Amino acid sequence: MLAALARHHRKALKWVEWRPVVEVDRESGAVRLRDYVSVDDCGVRISPMPVAGQVHGGLAQGIAQALWEDLVYDAHGQLSTGSLMEYTTSAANGAVSR
């Protein structure tokens, strides 16, 4: 059984398509996420709940990184946001689900 599973995993491919719909304020540059569509094919889901959690977590992390996370350097080229004290990260209450 384990050998058959290992052979299957070597052939397994994952396909993902993500399409965000954003609104950008031309004056301020502020970005507002209007909608997000995700289609993930991970193959046979043995346990669907953890798979859904991985997809939702990946979406939340990707959106947060694109919209809020920022590496800031000072005038001497030193990283100013090197710890979580200065680095903006996402929180669960900032995620919206429908």
Radius of gyration: 19 Å
- Strand order across the biggest sheet? 1-2
Task: Assign the CATH topology.
Answer: Aldehyde Oxidoreductase, domain 4
Q: Which runs of at least 5 residues are low in confidence (pLDDT < 50)?
A: none
Order of helices and strands: HEEH
The CATH architecture name reads 2-Layer Sandwich
Largest sheet: 2 strands, antiparallel
**Terminus-to-terminus distance:** 39 Å
- Dominant shape: extended
Describe what this molecule looks like in 3D.
Helices cover 31% and strands 21% of the residues. By secondary structure, it is an alpha+beta fold. The chain has one domain (15-90): Aldehyde Oxidoreductase, domain 4, CATH 3.30.365. A two-stranded antiparallel ribbon has the order 1-2. It is extended.
Descriptive key words:
single chain, 98 residues, alpha+beta, two-stranded antiparallel ribbon, 2 helices, 2 strands
Write the layout of secondary structure elements.
Blueprint lengths: L1 H10 L3 E10 L6 E11 L6 H20 L31
What's the quick description here?
This protein has 98 residues and is an alpha+beta fold. The chain has helices spanning 2-11, 48-67; strands at residues 15-24, 31-41.
